[in-house]
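The aim of this short unit is practical: by the end, you should be able to scan a pair of folded records and say something sensible about each. We start with the first protein, listed as its amino acid sequence and then its structure tokens.
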Amino acid sequence: MKVQFLASSVGKHSTLQFLSSFIIDDFISIDAGAIGLLSSIDVQKQIRHVVLSHAHIDHIASLPLFLDTVYDTHSDCPTVHASEDLQNCLQCDVFNNRLWPDLLHMPNGGSPFLKFSTLADGQSVQLGNVRLTPVSVDHVIPCFGFLIEDDQAAIAFVSDTAPTQNIWDRIRNVENLKAVFLEASFPNALQQLADKSMHLTPHDFAGEVDKIGRDVSVIAIHLKSRFRETIVEELKSLGLAQLEIGKPGHTYQF
């Protein structure tokens, strides 16, 4: 399984993550924060499934740009996989002919711009050779983490969330679990803000790693850019042998 952690910044500070997008095996995107900013249109056109965790802007920001770029009247459109609540949010708040044209109902003579597929907690979907299972996590709005499996490996995305439990129960006995991508949004000094916004600090991060109950690679993601250096220092001070700091622009192989 190939996982591309998309970069979302320009200039010399490319390690900063402002937007969230991961591309699985070239054809599945987990969230759409940055996919519409990829400079290669051919790479964008390979993405046939966009799987959305929740409605916050850093996870959906470039979805309208992406759909506009890859649109082709003579070929099938991408599928956007999202909860019913998130689908309603996109229809009312994004594709509303104010923020962006209503791509869902735009009259045309060919293929639609997108089609929706509804995600439900714990119900797996098969996307090519990849099985994807959404699992509810604990955030300020409804949000999914994801278990992603193929014949060779399994990985989990756990972002965005406060301390949670369901997804750890789900993945604990999964064979071939190779890695967990886990958020660490705020430094420990901002624990109160992390609690209110339902994100993790390095202190919380350590507690979530304990819940995994297995020795797998844990890749820290969703580090707030302004506090990145402090968060990295605090994560490294935990002494977790399996810890890796996520690198925007890097491709992981599992």
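Turning to the second protein, read its sequence before its tokens, just as you did above.
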Amino acid sequence: MLYNYLPMKDRILQLFEDLEKLNNITTHVMQLKDEYFDKINKGEKIYEIRLCDEKRKKIRIGDDILFLKYSDFHKRIKVRVLHIYNHKSIEEVLNVYSLDALGFKGMSKPEVLDIITQIYPKTEIKKYGLVLIHIAKI
């Protein structure tokens, strides 16, 4: 394949597809709240935030994630993991990444902090840290 003639995003995805053929790529399955599922589906959210617990520590660059829409598990999105970033706090995440890319367009940092800590209590974040998964829909 002549990768040089493809746009960068397509080149990266093609390389991962070729690697998938050579290796057995792991697919992780995760539930996703409807609003975030829809944002990933529309390409408005390119990072997924999760606790860096034992399950998430198994995720590797090049793996796939199959997101199931919380209200309807028949609706699914498959994404490829492009990068993985570990962080100690949500404040650290909010100071480094665009709220738009995180799926919180038009919101303030305090609003996003409140949303994340409702999902993951600060005690859990302090215990495990957070993993930011950079994804691309495939």
